[in-house]
TrEMBL record:
Pfam families for the chain: HTH_18
Residue span(s) of domain HTH araC/xylS-type: 20-120
Segments crossing the lipid bilayer: none
Organism (species): Candidatus Pseudobacter hemicellulosilyticus
Residue ranges of coiled coil: none
Keywords: DNA-binding, Transcription, Transcription regulation
Protein name: AraC family transcriptional regulator
InterPro entries xrefs: Homeodomain-like_sf (IPR009057), HTH_AraC (IPR018060)
GO molecular function: DNA-binding transcription factor activity; sequence-specific DNA binding
Length: 128
C-alpha cells in the first residue's frame, strides 16, 4: 500500500523530464524573470501542475529556485572580482536602482552586504 502511495506522489518520468527542462531554463538565464505561465508553455505543462511538481522534485517552487540560482551565480561573480553593479545586471536586477536592489536582495539572503561577504571569502574586488 505504501509503495502505491509513493508512486502516486512522485512525478512520472515524462513529467520529471519537463520539470528538469524548466529548471535548466531557469539556470541557463537567471537574468530573465521566468514567469510560471511562460515556463509552463515552454515545457508543455499547465501552471498548477508545474508549480506543484517542481516543488515535489526540487523542494521549492520555480520562483524560489530562480532566486537561489541568482544568489549562487552572484556569489561566483563576486568571487571572480566583478563589481556589485556588474553582478546586479548579470543576475537580472535592472534599472536605476539595480545595484541597490541587488544589495538588498543579497543582504536578505546572506545577512551580509556583497562586499562584506566577499571580504569574508578572502577576495577583494579588483574592479570596484
Amino acid at each position: 500500500m505504501k509503495s502505491m502511495e509513493m508512486q502516486l506522489s512522485l512525478p512520472m518520468s515524462a513529467e520529471v523530464e519537463k520539470i528538469e527542462n524548466a529548471a535548466r531554463l531557469i539556470e541557463k538565464d537567471v537574468k530573465c524573470h521566468h514567469s510560471i505561465a511562460a515556463l509552463s508553455r515552454k515545457v508543455l505543462m499547465n501552471k498548477s501542475q508545474l508549480k506543484s511538481r517542481f516543488r515535489e522534485l526540487y523542494g521549492v517552487g520555480p520562483y524560489t529556485y530562480l532566486q537561489q540560482q541568482r544568489l549562487e551565480r552572484s556569489k561566483m561573480l563576486l568571487l571572480a572580482g566583478e563589481s556589485v553593479q556588474c553582478v546586479a545586471l548579470t543576475v537580472g536586477f535592472c534599472g536605476k536602482q539595480s545595484a541597490t536592489n541587488f544589495v538588498r536582495f543579497f543582504k536578505r539572503k546572506m545577512r551580509l552586504s556583497p562586499d562584506a561577504w566577499r571580504k569574508l571569502q578572502g577576495n577583494c574586488p579588483q574592479n570596484g
